[in-house]
Design a protein that fits this description.
Layout lengths: L1 E5 L5 H10 L4 E5 L4 H6 L4 E4 L25 E4 L1 H9 L3 E3 L5 E9 L12 E8 L2 E4 L5 E5 L7 E4 L4 E4 L11 H12 L8 H16 L4 E6 L3 H14 L3 E7 L7 H12 L3 E5 L1 H8 L5 H24 L4 H4 L3 E4 L4 H6 L24 E4 L7 H10 L4 H4 L19 H20 L11 E3 L5 E5 L2 E10 L2 E3 L5 E3 L4 H14 L3 E6 L13
Parallel strand pairs: 1-2, 1-3, 3-4, 4-11, 12-13, 12-15, 13-14, 15-16, 19-22
Antiparallel strand pairs: 5-8, 6-7, 6-9, 9-10, 10-11, 17-19, 18-19, 20-21
Helix pairs in contact: 5-6, 5-12, 6-12, 8-9, 14-15
The protein binds xanthosine-5'-monophosphate.
Length: about 525
């Protein structure tokens, strides 16, 4: 067990995930946990995360320096690095010299931590203070133009740290640095696999749902809910019923595809046709957050009705007191809906922030701490079909949040056609796995003038939004080949009568988000 002490970094989950990638089990604990309790959990190593900008700031979280003498290896990153330096008598300078973003770092002495790394490489920095002098007994391993002490280690005591964020992808060799600490300095064994996650969750679900409890799983057709369902099925067998809601905002051919794929894996799939219900509730609504809230609410109402239909005929002693709802909520959904510590709401993901207050279900969310690609790895371990595991993400609210303006059946049909063309051409170009997601957005309230076959047109624009990403927390616009873009543009304007203009969104995330609403 490796404990990641969270100093309020957005990155604590990312660190935990990198530790899992190094095949070591990890958990996150708050920085308010006393050192004695940290140690009582008998961790093999402790990682101190990044955090607020200055150890000198008023109310800045600290850690009792006795931690560093307890004989447990400790690794500090960014703020955690400064805490270690300060706690052991080093010098942290409040110099005002800042480093943000990609920064070149020079290895002056590789030691164990930076062994085999190029002498000069680029890492992701975000700090105002810097360590001016390492504590006694430490070897300084790296520096930058601004920071004389950018990394240090004391192998004898199992202590090490870096000023940068090795957990983010923009830091070159970050994973290697973390692994050097875990494997070489702390001596952690590499035994953790994705199957351990499954086993752990199966135990947890059995405990939550009990001997009799029954659960409904909200299958969306995507990988997350499929993996969540597969895990819950392992835990409670046929006491799980999968429900798929066709809310009328799915893509072309999607419901049929989902039905085929899923009936192979989960024998009972309850498909609910709820188009009229959802579109009725969305009538006249243009505000994105309002749409999301309405869709979230209608989803829950549909599941409640399904629950009554599926389990209602059972005698009370056969069904338990609580109704459970399984959802494939991932960690990024939790963070962006404002669920992470100290994070603000970007948008209410329908399965998190969009839940109604009078929710009748208790939630079962086995993937709440995982990132998408980890979920894919779990899905592969569970033997789910690769069409399911590698399906590109599609948001629960569906095309409803890709129509800018009111959602109507007619607008959905337009978008469905344009979207189908874009997806078909992407697949034909063999780029499905290179592109994280390829939303097509209909600017339904915008019209522009065009000319087609000697006649004036006055149609709608669509926006192509192909992005690359690792976990949807950040994304970049995908540089699709021009000839592919041309084919998509020509086909959409020829085949979808209402669309006379095709544009490409070239905004990264941040500052944009992947979806437009
Ligand atoms: P954004 O637009 O915030 O999206 O950059 C990040 C990722 O989340 C997906 N997304 C959702 N998924 N329910 C979901 O299940 C939602 O309400 C929702 N909103 C966005 C989005 O497609 C992207 O993959």
């Amino acid at each position: 067990l490796v404990l990641v002490v969270d100093f309020g970094a957005q990155y604590a989950q990312l660190i935990a995930r990198r530790v899992r990638e190094a095949r070591v089990y990890s958990e996150i604990v708050p920085h308010t946990l006393p050192v004695a309790e940290l140690l009582a959990r008998k961790p093999k190593a402790i990682i101190l995360s990044g955090g607020p900008s200055s150890v000198y700031a008023e109310g800045a979280p600290g850690i009792d320096a006795s931690l560093f003498g307890a004989g447990v290896p400790v690794f500090g990153m960014c703020y955690g690095f400064q805490l270690m330096a300060q706690g052991l008598g080093g010098e942290v300078a409040h110099s005002g010299a800042r480093e943000y973003g990609r920064t070149p770092v020079r290895v002056v002495e590789p030691g164990r931590l930076l062994a085999d790394l190029p002498t000069e490489h680029k890492v992701w920095m975000s700090h105002g203070d810097s360590v001016a002098a390492a504590p006694e007994g430490f070897t300084v391993l790296a520096s930058t133009d601004v920071t004389p002490v950018a990394a240090f280690e004391d192998v004898a005591r199992g202590l090490a740290g870096v000023q940068w964020h090795p957990e983010v992808l923009h830091s070159e060799h970050g994973q290697q640095v973390l692994e050097h600490f875990l494997h070489e300095i702390a001596g952690c064994r590499q035994t953790w696999t994705m199957l351990n996650i499954v086993e752990e969750q199966v135990d947890r679900i059995r405990e939550q749902v009990g001997e009799k409890g029954r659960a409904i799983c909200a299958l969306s057709g995507g990988v997350d809910s499929a993996v969540a369902a597969a895990i819950v099925q392992r835990a409670i067998g046929d006491r799980l019923t999968c429900v798929y809601v066709d809310h009328g905002m799915m893509r072309k051919g999607e419901t049929e595809q989902v039905r085929r794929d899923f009936e192979e894996v989960f024998d009972a799939l309850d498909v609910v046709d709820a188009e009229a219900q959802f579109l009725g509730a969305l009538e006249g609504v243009r505000d994105p957050e309002e749409k999301r809230k309405i869709i979230g609410r209608e989803f829950i109402r549909t599941f409640e009705a399904a629950e009554v239909r599926v389990f209602g005929s059972l005698a009370p002693e056969e069904r338990g007191d609580t109704a459970y709802l399984v959802q494939g909520t991932l960690y990024p959904d939790v963070v962006e809906s404002g669920g992470g510590a100290g994070t603000s709401t970007i948008k209410s993901h329908h399965n998190v922030g969009g839940l109604p207050e009078d929710l009748q279900f208790e939630l079962v969310e086995p993937l709440r701490t995982l990132f998408k690609d980890e979920v894919r790895a779990v899905g592969e371990q569970l033997g789910l079909p690769s069409t399911m595991v590698w399906r590109q993400p599609f948001p629960g609210p569906g095309l409803g949040i890709r129509i800018i303006g009111e959602v109507t059946r007619q607008r959905l049909d337009i978008l469905r056609e344009a979207d189908a063309i874009a997806r078909e051409e992407l697949t034909r170009a063999g780029l499905d796995r290179d592109i994280w997601q390829f939303p097509v957005v209909l600017l339904a309230d915008v019209r522009s003038v065009g000319v087609q076959g000697d006649g004036r047109t006055y149609g709608h624009p669509v926006v192509l939004r192909p992005v690359t990403s690792e976990d949807a927390m950040t994304a970049d616009w995908a540089r699709l080949p021009y000839d592919l873009l041309e084919r998509i543009s020509t086909r959409i304007t020829n085949e979808v009568a209402e669309v006379n203009r095709v544009t490409v969104d070239i905004t990264s995330k941040p500052p944009g988000t992947i979806e437009w609403e």
